[in-house]
Amino acid sequence: MISCDEFCEKVRLYQDTMYALAFSVLRNDQDAADAISESIVKAYSKLSQLKNPHSFKSWLLKIVHNTCLEMLRKNANTVSMDEQYDLGENTSQHDISTKLVLREAVEQLNQPYRTVVYLFYYENLSIAEISKITGGSILAVKKQLSRARSMLQESLNKEDFF
Q1: Looking at residue 86, what is its pLDDT?
Q2: How far apart are CA 24 and CA 61, in angstroms?
């Protein structure tokens, strides 16, 4: 069982990941913050249901993902990406433009493709972990990733990126 202090420490450790996931689904800063707050409360209230403390990250991200989906169903309201992402100071101009084009292409994907791409490429989660988080089968996640890659390639080819 995880103590209250451990819970808080782990939440702080994964706060950026939780935000990025929530933002990738909701596409709105305030909604993402609301989803994270709600998810933390849900996670804490269901802490006794966590069977394996080593899978805390995927368990927490599943709660965030489900909370975001609930919010989408309730609101049926999404907003375009308004803010730029921190790309680091040591990034060359070509790298910055490449990252921006790729990020924009990923943001244009519909759900569930945007979420699986984010979790796989930006959070380096395995397909099995993504399957747990999204509630889909491993085969479904593989198909979604494959389709998302095709969509991204088509989108980027249209822009003469490659």
Answers
A1: 45
A2: 12
At CB < 8 A and 24+ separation, what contacts does 137-143 make? Answer: 141/116
Question: Which DSSP string do the residues of 3-60 spell out, in sequence order?
Answer: -HHHHHHHHHHTHHHHHHHHHHHH--HHHHHHHHHHHHHHHHHTGGG-S-GGGHHHHH
pTM score, whole prediction: 0.63
Q: What integer is the mean pLDDT of 32-44?
A: 94
Position 51 scores a pLDDT of: 87
Distance CA 132, CA 119 (A): 12
Residue 159 DSSP one-character state? T
SS3 per-residue string spanning 82-143 = CCCCCCCCCCCHHHHHHHHHHHHHHHHCCCCHHHHHHHHHHCCCCHHHHHHHHCCCHHHHHH
Burial 118-138 (b: 16+ CB within 10 A, else e): bbbeebebebebbbbbbebee
Cα–Cα distance measured from residue 49 to residue 83, given in angstroms and rounded to the nearest whole number: 36
- Local structure of 152: helix, strand or coil: helix
